[in-house]
Specification:
Layout (H helix, E strand, L loop, with lengths): L1 H15 L2 E2 L5 E7 L14 H14 L8 E5 L3 H14 L5 E7 L2 E4 L2 E4 L9 H4 L1 E2 H8 L5 E7 L12 E2 L2 H12 L5 E5 L9 E2 L4 E2 H11 L4 E3 H15 L7 E4 L5 E3 L4 H16 L8 H16 L5 H16 L7 H38 L3 E8 L7 E4 L2 E5 L5 E6 L1 E9 L2 E10 L5 E6 L5 E9 L4 E4 L2 E5 L2 E6 L3 E7 L6 E6 L5 E7 L5 E7 L5 E4 L2 E4 L3 E7 L1 E8 L6 E7 L4 E3 L11 H8 L2 E12 L11 E12 L4 E13 L7 E13 L3 E10 L3 E10 L2 E3 L2 E10 L8 E12 L1
Parallel strand pairs: 1-15, 2-3, 2-4, 4-8, 8-10, 16-22, 23-29, 30-36
Antiparallel strand pairs: 5-6, 5-9, 6-7, 10-14, 11-12, 13-15, 16-19, 17-18, 17-20, 20-21, 23-26, 24-25, 24-27, 27-28, 30-33, 31-32, 31-34, 34-35, 37-38, 37-45, 38-39, 39-40, 40-41, 41-42, 42-44, 43-44, 44-45
């Protein structure tokens, strides 16, 4: 019985402790801030070393796996807030979280804030970690939360009105209402209006250096209460009572336990199996045996076990390692454990009901101070845009996201800049510390610009593309520049840059300056039609033109000839000679002509004009003439033609009219406008004779031409040889 009594006393002491063990799903978030962008905040020396010391201690003791530790060194506000929220959402009921912060802590309007690298003192509510977020962690569903704050360091934190270093009092007030129940602890590095100090010898904060030392001194397990007492004593002594750490919450109910040696676990497992096999372990308690094996197996694999599982391990360790008790007493010890758990559960339920009742009574009082957080994330267009919430400016949207603390209720969010369409959304924060994520998908704004020129009609190019003539309306997104080029022949060209403005139609009017002109001579031996930049300038054999400075295009056109084009720069070139080549005929052209005979010409001759006889005997006679002709082209320049004509003539002295009528057929060379032919003429009075026909077009409109037409018959000159001074002809295709 003495042995049994000793066991029960030891076991009862263990039941007082709510244990924290290395094999639960433990997490750690370690934050250290030493540098600040706000020049009003002085840097700190050793806060990053504090983070490193805590990390090595937690991992080496087996309290947290390295993979479950998150380290933030000099984080931004967005990084810190998002990480805290992510870890809060990760925690489960049986998990443990170590939250450690080393840096500046201040108070502002009754709220504690922990500074990060981009904290701005004049906007501290929106750029520092609020105490309410720490409170949220402490109230999360995880069974064990240990918050360690090495804050309220000495140093300058600016002259912003309302910002003070009196942090501990505010934290104490918050902790008394938040840190309740089992497994929740908040420890600060100093109390009252004290300032936390740094230790040049250890190159760490004084509080953190002694905390690390105390944790390393734990042999197997120790209550957090005892560990804190040691740290408090050492810090107070070192600082001559100018810095006294404070603890809030269930420090007595938390046990810090080192990872059990692997051989110890294996030995317990081996002996337990042997006792069950040989009947030493009561066979009627097979369920207890299986339960113990499961706990040992999880510990051996490094898996998470429950608080109850840890206590079972302690009982097994008592039996097999420390006191070598007869394993047959284990079932009774195990039953006692269940009885104690039932009593604790009843007490916890009563306490919880009381807290809930108090919470309902005070709900209306606290609701006014309850807040949540909105997390704004934007696309590339939204980055840098201004944030307005309920009409109040809240800075700009950053690429890392912007987190803003707001009271519960509805809020209207507006995101705006000169380059995006105004973006709006209404959100609701329903409960304290709710995280409302808001995605801002901004769209680029558009603008317009009217491009006008004097004189009008200038050619407009936008980013190298010809878009038409002025006046021109440019419309497009405002987040880019537009290169506008204006050109008009005879005027100087110019380039401008246009930036459109959101929702505005701008007008740009440009007065064009005339270019300087220079003399240009064009040699045109074939009297082709000459064009400059598409404008007709004449067809003389020599053209002298004043032309503006710059580049222009000279072109020439003439029937039967290939076109001519040449681009020149004035005044570098002052003379241009036009070279025209006859059109080359396709290989099957002659064949097509001989088969189709599609090209033909008709002409009419007539007039009342002097008639010249070769023998000079009847000078002064006049002739009335009319005739009709038809020409058919065999090729591009050869043809056959037929004509019929009738002359009535008399002399000036009133002699009788003479009738000279005939027909003509011949073969000739030429084109639609000019040519010559030879053939036979059949005259009414004198029969057949050799004859020649010459024609020349002086003026032409479309297919109609006017010019002299001469038919000569050698043997009948005295009667019918005439000079026809005019004809009308036209060309047609059929």
């Amino acid at each position: 019985m003495p042995k049994r009594k000793y066991i029960l006393i030891t076991f009862t002491l263990l039941l007082v402790l709510l244990t924290l063990f290395a094999f639960a799903t433990n997490y750690a978030l370690l934050i250290g801030v030493s540098q600040f962008t706000d020049k009003g905040i002085s840097p700190l020396k050793y806060t990053l070393n504090d983070v490193d010391g805590m990390y090595s201690t937690l991992v080496n003791m087996g309290l947290v796996k390295a993979s479950n530790v998150t380290i933030l060194k000099n984080p931004t506000y967005a990084q810190a807030i998002s990480t805290i929220l992510n870890i809060q959402n990760t925690l489960n009921k049986d998990d443990t979280l170590y939250f450690f912060y080393s840096g500046h802590g201040v108070t502002y309007k009754g709220q504690a804030y922990f500074l990060v690298s981009d904290t701005q003192l004049d906007a501290i509510k929106y750029t520092a970690i609020p105490q309410s977020m720490i409170d949220t962690l402490l109230k999360s569903k995880a069974s064990r939360i240990i918050v360690l704050l090495d804050a309220c360091h000495s140093g300058k934190v600016g002259d912003t009105k309302g910002v003070t270093l009196n942090l501990s009092k505010v934290i104490e007030q918050s902790a008394q209402s938040v840190v309740k129940g089992q497994g929740k602890v908040l420890i600060t590095s100093s109390s009252g209006e004290q300032v936390s100090q740094e230790d040049n010898s250890t190159k760490m904060g004084v509080f953190t250096s002694y905390l690390v030392k105390a944790l390393k001194n734990v042999k197997s397990y120790e209550t957090l209460s005892n560990i804190f007492s040691e740290v408090k004593k050492e810090v107070s002594t070192y600082t001559h009572n100018t810095q006294t750490p404070e603890a809030f919450g269930d420090t007595k109910g938390i046990v810090i336990m080192k990872i059990p040696p692997k051989d110890e676990v294996e030995e317990i497992m081996k002996e337990l199996r042997q006792d069950f096999a040989n009947g030493t372990f009561p066979l009627e308690y097979t369920d207890m045996f299986q339960e113990a094996i499961n706990v040992l197996t999880k510990i051996e694999k490094g898996e998470s076990i429950t608080e109850k599982g840890y206590r079972i391990y302690e009982l097994l360790k008592e039996c097999y390692i420390e006191h070598k008790f007869d394993i047959s007493v284990y079932p009774q010890m195990r039953k006692t454990l269940d009885q104690e758990n039932t009593q604790n559960a009843t007490q916890t339920t009563t306490s919880t009901n009381t807290q809930a009742s108090n919470k309902n009574e005070n709900k209306k009082k606290t609701n006014e101070n309850e807040t949540g957080i909105i997390a704004l994330q934007g696309n590339d267009l939204a980055i840098g845009a201004k944030i307005y919430i309920d009409g109040k400016a809240y800075g700009k949207l950053t690429s890392a996201g912007t987190y803003i603390q707001l009271p519960l209720g509805k809020h209207e969010i507006k995101i705006d800049s000169d380059e995006i369409n105004t973006w709006k959304k209404e959100i609701t924060i329903s409960y304290e510390n709710e995280l409302v994520k808001v995605e801002v998908n901004a769209e680029v704004a558009t603008g317009k610009a009217n491009i006008l020129t004097t004189p009008m009609g200038a050619e407009i190019y936008v980013n190298g593309e010809d878009v038409g003539q002025a006046p021109y309306t440019l419309e497009g997104p405002v987040n880019k520049e537009y290169e506008i080029k204006v050109e008009k022949y005879g005027y100087k060209e110019f380039d401008i840059l246009v930036k459109l403005k959101k929702g505005i139609t701008q007008s740009f009017t440009y007065t064009l300056k005339k270019s300087k002109t220079y003399a240009l001579t064009i040699d045109n031996p074939l009297n082709a039609d000459i064009y400059i930049n598409g404008n007709y300038v004449g067809n003389k054999s020599t053209l002298s033109i004043n032309i503006p400075e710059g580049t222009c295009k000279i072109s020439a056109k003439k029937n039967g000839y290939e076109g001519f084009e040449k681009e020149i720069s004035v005044p570098q070139i002052a003379n241009v000679e036009i070279f025209l080549q006859k059109k080359s005929l396709p290989s099957n052209h002659s064949k097509e002509k001989s088969q189709s005979f599609k090209k033909s010409a008709f002409w009419i001759t007539g007039g009342y004009y002097p008639q010249l006889f070769v023998d000079m005997t009847n000078i002064g006679n006049v002739s009335l003439h009319i005739g009709l002709g038809y020409r058919h082209f065999l090729s591009e320049n050869t043809f056959v033609e037929y004509s019929v004509g009738d002359d009535h003539w008399k002399d000036l002295w009133g002699n009788s009219w003479y009738d000279c009528m005939g027909i003509y057929a011949g073969i000739g060379y030429g084109n639609d406008d000019d040519g010559i032919s030879g053939g036979l003429a059949l005259w009414k009075n004198s029969g057949f004779d050799v004859a020649f026909h010459v024609y020349w077009t002086m003026f032409k409109i479309g297919n109609f031409g006017i010019g002299p037409n001469v038919t000569v018959s050698f043997s009948n000159l005295s009667e019918c040889g005439t000079l026809y001074i005019g004809y009308v002809g036209f060309t047609s295709e059929f």
